[in-house]
Specification:
335 residues, alpha/beta, 434 Repressor (Amino-terminal Domain), Rossmann fold, four-stranded parallel β-sheet, 13 helices, 12 strands, 44% helix, 14% strand, repressor
């Protein structure tokens, strides 16, 4: 259906001239923001894909990939960037990295700023619905989504099965004899955190246990703060699933300072398997999502789309789902 939609159709739907529609879709500056929003919204609704030949005339290869991440601080994002960089060097490409600070508007601004400077985009926006985001990004660039929820907006993506990973974490804690399992959640607006919370709740329901959810923001400080809340309770949980490894690290520090034995008093498991978890005291159990490989494989997927010659390839590319692997270490091993 997308192949039959023309730029003229998009212009009519947006109520603008073909020239204005072209400028908006190609990320040019000489168009008002209001017109750009209307054009991109119309293009998204119609599933418009620019013709590959037209794109080739409008843009020459830069051998550079744009990377937009919600943040560039911390070991998780360092590993993502390292994986992308390794994949880029193997393909003879360079990368241009920008942080969106967890803001959809900032991600869109960064993408538009990169239009004309890069051959394709890798976007990680776990706080944004892909259907909404796809209507605002440049349509003349091959695009791969990293993280979030797969299969949305017909965009190629590489996503982690966060629900099944969280379910596996709860089942593991139950197998270790835990019956009061608390969860330090990620940000409420984060789609991946939502899936991990859903997996946790499904796991407790499966085991016939009651949930206890503490707020978090994926930082070690949030994990530390959550533990202070738990320590003030009459009865501590005997199992703790943190929605990411950084919060698990912060929780471990808080428990050790309070003299709580890990895993005898409370077993802990995180999510992601960032390298530092192996060297914590005790080493932290986790769900290995292959953060480095997510970056590398996403770059390889995007590189293949670019070699196919146009953004049209993006519309037909399927999502790749990564199922996390349980990694049991001393923080949760009781048996």
């Amino acid at each position: 259906m997308a192949a039959s939609v023309t730029l003229n159709d998009v212009a009519k739907a947006a109520g603008v001239s073909i020239a204005s529609a072209s400028r908006a879709i190609n990320g040019l500056d000489n168009v008002t923001e209001e017109v750009r929003e209307r054009v991109l919204a119309a293009a998204g609704k119609l599933k418009y894909v620019p013709h590959g030949a037209a794109r080739a005339l409008a843009m020459s290869r830069t051998n550079t990939i744009g990377v937009i991440l919600p943040d560039i601080y911390g070991e998780f994002f360092s590993e993502i960037i390292r994986g992308i960089d390794v994949g880029a060097r193997a393909s003879g490409l360079h990368i241009l990295v920008s942080g969106s600070h967890g803001d959809v508007k900032e991600a869109v601004k960064a993408a538009r700023a990169m239009a004309g400077r890069v051959d394709g985009l890798l976007v990680m926006a776990p706080y944004a619905d892909a259907d909404d985001l796809s209507g605002k990004l440049p349509f003349n660039l091959p695009l791969v989504m990293m993280g979030g929820v797969g299969g949305q907006a017909d965009l190629p993506s590489l996503v982690v099965d966060n629900h099944s990973g969280a379910l596996e974490a709860v089942r593991h804690l139950c197998e270790q004899g835990c019956r009061r399992i608390a969860h330090i959640a990620g940000p409420e607006s984060n789609l991946e955190a939502q899936d991990r919370l859903r997996g946790y709740l499904d796991g407790l329901k499966e085991a016939g246990l009651s949930p206890q959810v503490l707020p978090g923001d994926f930082t070690d400080g949030a994990g530390y703060a959550a533990v202070q809340t738990l320590l003030a309770q009459e009865q501590m949980p005997d199992g703790l699933f943190a929605a990411n490894d950084m919060m698990a690290l912060g929780a471990t520090l808080g428990l050790r300072e309070a003299g709580v034995s890990i895993p005898d008093d409370i077993a802990i498991i995180g999510f992601d398997d960032i390298p530092v978890t192996r060297y914590a005291s005790p080493p932290i159990s986790t769900l290995r999502a292959g953060v480095f490989d997510i970056g590398r494989r996403s770059l390889e997927l995007l590189s293949a789309l670019i070699e196919r010659g146009s953004a049209e390839a993006s519309a037909s590319a399927a999502s790749l789902i990564v199922r996390p692997e349980l990694v049991v270490r001393a923080s949760s091993r009781r048996r």
